[in-house]
Amino acid sequence: MEIRPYRQQQDFRAVLDAQCDLYQINFPRFVCTPVFLADQAQRLRVAGRRPMENGIFVLDDEGTMAGFVWVAVRVDLQGAYGSIDQVYLKPPYRRQGYGNWLMNAADGFIKKQGLKTARLYVTRENADAVRLYQRLGYEVTRHEMERHF
Ligand SMILES: CC(C)(COP(=O)(O)OP(=O)(O)OC[C@H]1O[C@@H](n2cnc3c(N)ncnc32)[C@H](O)[C@@H]1OP(=O)(O)O)[C@@H](O)C(=O)NCCC(=O)NCCS
Predict the structure, then answer these.
(1) What pTM, to 2 d.p., does this model score?
(2) Fewer CB in a 10 Å sphere around the end CB: N or C, the chain?
């Protein structure tokens, strides 16, 4: 098992194939459509060609993609930061500590870029993800609130 940089040719399909699951877990009413997948494919193609702005790392289990993390360098009113856009493990690889491996790879990329802040969004109900981030020292700095009618 190893963490290595994303390779567009080798990993594109596996990362794309994970997109429906990733979004369905985090957005319960989300419907995975061909249009959504085409948009994600385009984003990934562009990101894969810009390794300075996108740190994508793959957890490789002897040639099989077990998971990946995707970090993007972004700028907002507070300056530049590393945005952990996607963290994903295929179901058999969850709850064994590999989430930690992926997040360490993300940290390494962010620090290498000279950035001081990592930021991410997570759905409150996603308990495994929330626990992982809290263990690593992530704190809640903003609440997204909604009410239903
Ligand atoms: C979010 C996600 C990456 C977290 O991965 P994870 O496997 O739960 O997290 P870790 O790899 O850190 O595993 C930690 C758990 O495994 C357990 N574990 C078992 N063996 C372990 C080992 N050798 N080392 C460390 N932890 C181990 C830990 O005790 C811990 O359990 P706990 O949280 O009950 O204390 C994973 O659940 C996932 O891919 N989910 C679907 C996609 C998703 O929702 N992504 C997040 C979007 S914001």
Answers:
(1) 0.94
(2) C
